[in-house]
Every structure is written in structure tokens, then in C-alpha cells.
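pls design
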């Protein structure tokens, strides 16, 4: 990676030059001048990474690859360098860290200067300011994004974030009104320092000082001090995570191992692969595959559906959290009777449920006892060194462990949807029948 990073830095400097120096031309008319300032900013970031020593963080490796794609776009006639610029900014945010957030903000500033009516550029700027704790500025950028966004569904996450930032600022405003201005005390000095316009870390520190000093000054039993402490707790909670619009998720019932065992007891279950062939046959009126699937007591589908019809019957939906920030994935809005989310560590799993479950989209939600069935000592308790498992395989192993379904069939697990060799070997040892016409595997 050291040579790759050095080579990329050389390419960036060759294309973008340095501030105050002319850039080299590119074939077909020279480099697109618009994003070159952004490319110079990326070059500065690459220089800092190179000086920091060997790279061991996979997220920063992906950021470097994204900068490489931006470099290529800037030097290729007809390439859309603006989209590459936005992707690089988003990858910087996904990498985490203050330096990467500053890089994302600098790229967002360049993007909004290039295209003032780009909703993606304003969303990136809002996210970057938010990551840096500059909430009031983030609200302004988010509002510019909403003014340009025509998709109401896509606006909801931004609207919720704006509401959270404003609520956090309102807690500070109320805290500053609880005590009358009096003598020039240490507590009054802390109050003077506190403001909703401070960066989040500074506001948190000032708020902490204010609570400590007011408690020492008036005592913990003072009504105003008690209200101040409550506002402080609410501010910290809002700073850590957005509130859930419907904490009860439309009345969804948590389901654990005993509940799942009862749900599948004595019932026929099929796991349907999400492939173009299976989806096409399932949607065809009167097709044998559609009739076959409809005949099962429980239909299970896994992960994000790319081919199945939106209204395809799903009695149980299972998905596995993957990546560094799994809570940022698309929301699970397809209707399902029950939804199981597999993931580790526990904080990531909780964040994903808070951010991606949709109220009313499921009747039951798997609880924490079902989040890691393969490696939980209370369930299968396997060693984690065997590598990642597919969601379908996890469901199969869980159903096999429960031991209560009358029958479990796999439908359509061939070609791109085929299980890994290790998983196929496990299935093979338990296969009672294979039906080639329906691409069905029956487990005994």
C-alpha cells in the first residue's frame, strides 16, 4: 500500500498541481478545471497519510481507492468528476475520524461551489458539519438539501436529524434560563460559555461544568438544579443518537428463541433465493413455482430483495449486518410477519434496529438472543474463525437447532445464489431429496 499511496500522490500532484501552479493537460483538451481544487485537497490528505506510516485501516484504504477514482475521473475526457467528488467525500465520512470529516467538509464546500443546486452536495456538507459537531451549521446545510429534494421518503432521515439537532440546542437554551443573572460567580461564567452554537464537544464540556457548579452552588435538591440535570441528560442522549419516531415500532412484538421455536413448530418452511429466475417464475400467474411456494406454511427470504416483487409473500425476513457502519443501510420497509437481524457487536446491532426498522413493517422482531445464533454459546456456539456465513445458512442452522419445523426446503439456491462450499457440504449431509425441476432441496 505504501507504493500505491506514493504513486497515487504523484498522480494527484501531476494532474492538479499545487496551489499557484498550472496543472498538466490531459488527452482531449486538458484536465477538467472545476474539481482540481478538490483534488489538491485530497493530495494534502494523502501526504498526511503517507507521513503517518503504514496503513492498516481498511476504511482508509477504501478512501484512498475513492481518491484514485476521482483522480482518474479528473484526467479522463467525458468522465463525471463531480459524482466521483461526492463519492470521495462520502467515503471520507465513512472512514471516521476528525481529519477525514474535515476532508469531507472541504470536498463538500468545493461541490456546493461547483453546483449550488446539487442536493447531494448539500447533504454531504450537512453530514460533514454534523460529524464535526457543528450542529447549527449542519441544520442550515440540511435545509438547503431539503429545499432541493423532491423525494419525500428520502427526506425523512434528514428531517429527523434536523429535529434532533434542534432539540439538543433547545435543551441548552432552556438550561440558560433556569437561574437569574446574579453575582459574578464561577457558575455564571460557565453559563456565559455555554451556547447552542458551540461545537458539540465544547458544548458538552461547558454543559457538564454548568451542572457541576450549579449543583455545588444551590444543592442537588433545588428544583432548578433538578431540572438542569434532566436537561443535561436529555442533551447527552440527543447528542449520542436520534430519537426513534415510534419506539414501539407499530406494536411489533419482540421474539426470542422460545417464541421462534413455537412459531415454526410443526410447520413447513421454505427459504426462497432472490434470483431473477426465481422471481420471474414466482410472479408468473399460474406457474408451478408460485403454487409450490404458496403451499408452505412459512416463506423465508433473506437480506435485501433485488428481484422479488415488493408484495412477494414474506412470513420471515432475515438479514445479516455487514460493513463498518451497518446502521446506515437502507431501511427494512418490506412487509414481513417476523424479522430477524443477525449482527455483532451488540452496539452496532442496536443502532441498526433503531435506524433501519420501519414501524408497521413487521409483527415480530427478533431480540438480542437471536442476533448471533452460530456463535452464541447458548445456541450453536461455533468458533468465529470459520469465516462469514450467508444469511440463508444462518437461518438453516438455526432452524436445525430448534428442531421443530415439520420440513425445511431451499428453493432457487443455484448459480449466483448458491451457498459456499462449506455451507453446501453441511446441507448435503442433511439432504433427504433434491427436486431439479423446482430447484428444491429438502432437509430431513
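designed seq:
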Amino acid at each position: 500500500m505504501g507504493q500505491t499511496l506514493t504513486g497515487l500522490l504523484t498522480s494527484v500532484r501531476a494532474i492538479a498541481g499545487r496551489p499557484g501552479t498550472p496543472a498538466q493537460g490531459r488527452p482531449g483538451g486538458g484536465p477538467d478545471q472545476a474539481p482540481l481544487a478538490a483534488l489538491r485537497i485530497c493530495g494534502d490528505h494523502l501526504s498526511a497519510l503517507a507521513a503517518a506510516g503504514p496503513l492498516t485501516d481498511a476504511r482508509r484504504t477504501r478512501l484512498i481507492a475513492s481518491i484514485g477514482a476521482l483522480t482518474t475521473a479528473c484526467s479522463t475526457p467525458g468522465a463525471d468528476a463531480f459524482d466521483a467528488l461526492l463519492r470521495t467525500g462520502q467515503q471520507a465520512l465513512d472512514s471516521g475520524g476528525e481529519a477525514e470529516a474535515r476532508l469531507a467538509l472541504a470536498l463538500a464546500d468545493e461541490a456546493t461551489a461547483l453546483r449550488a443546486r446539487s442536493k447531494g452536495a448539500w447533504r454531504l456538507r450537512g453530514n460533514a458539519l454534523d460529524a464535526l459537531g457543528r450542529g447549527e451549521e449542519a441544520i442550515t446545510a440540511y435545509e438547503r438539501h431539503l429545499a432541493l429534494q423532491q423525494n419525500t421518503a428520502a427526506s425523512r432521515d434528514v428531517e429527523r436529524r434536523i429535529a434532533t439537532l434542534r432539540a439538543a440546542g433547545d435543551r441548552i437554551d432552556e438550561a440558560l434560563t433556569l437561574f437569574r443573572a446574579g453575582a459574578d460567580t464561577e457558575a455564571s461564567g460557565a453559563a456565559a460559555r455555554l451556547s447552542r452554537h458551540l461545537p458539540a464537544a465544547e458544548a458538552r464540556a461547558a454543559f457538564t461544568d454548568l451542572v457541576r457548579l450549579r449543583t455545588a452552588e444551590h444543592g442537588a435538591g433545588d428544583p432548578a438544579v433538578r431540572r438542569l440535570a434532566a436537561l443535561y441528560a436529555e442533551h447527552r442522549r440527543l447528542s449520542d443518537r436520534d430519537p426513534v419516531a415510534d419506539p414501539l415500532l407499530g406494536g411489533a412484538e419482540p421474539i426470542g428463541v422460545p417464541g421462534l421455536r413455537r412459531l415454526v413448530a410443526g410447520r413447513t418452511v421454505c427459504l426462497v433465493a432472490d434470483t431473477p429466475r426465481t422471481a420471474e417464475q414466482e410472479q408468473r400467474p399460474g406457474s408451478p413455482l408460485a403454487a409450490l411456494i404458496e403451499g408452505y406454511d412459512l416463506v423465508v427470504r433473506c437480506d435485501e430483495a433485488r428481484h422479488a416483487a415488493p408484495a412477494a409473500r414474506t412470513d420471515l425476513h432475515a438479514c445479516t449486518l455487514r460493513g463498518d457502519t451497518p446502521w446506515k443501510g437502507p431501511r427494512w420497509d418490506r412487509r414481513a410477519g417476523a424479522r430477524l437481524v443477525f449482527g455483532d457487536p451488540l452496539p452496532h446491532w442496536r443502532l441498526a434496529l433503531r435506524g433501519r426498522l420501519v414501524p408497521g413493517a413487521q409483527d415480530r422482531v427478533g431480540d438480542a438472543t437471536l442476533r448471533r445464533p452460530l456463535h452464541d454459546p447458548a445456541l450453536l456456539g461455533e468458533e468465529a474463525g470459520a469465516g462469514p456465513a450467508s444469511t440463508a445458512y444462518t437461518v438453516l442452522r438455526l432452524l436445525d437447532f430448534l428442531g421443530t419445523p415439520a420440513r425445511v426446503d431451499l428453493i432457487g439456491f443455484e448459480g449466483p445464489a448458491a451457498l459456499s462450499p462449506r455451507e453446501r457440504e453441511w446441507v448435503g449431509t442433511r439432504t433427504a431429496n433434491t427436486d431439479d425441476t423446482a430447484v428444491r432441496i429438502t432437509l430431513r
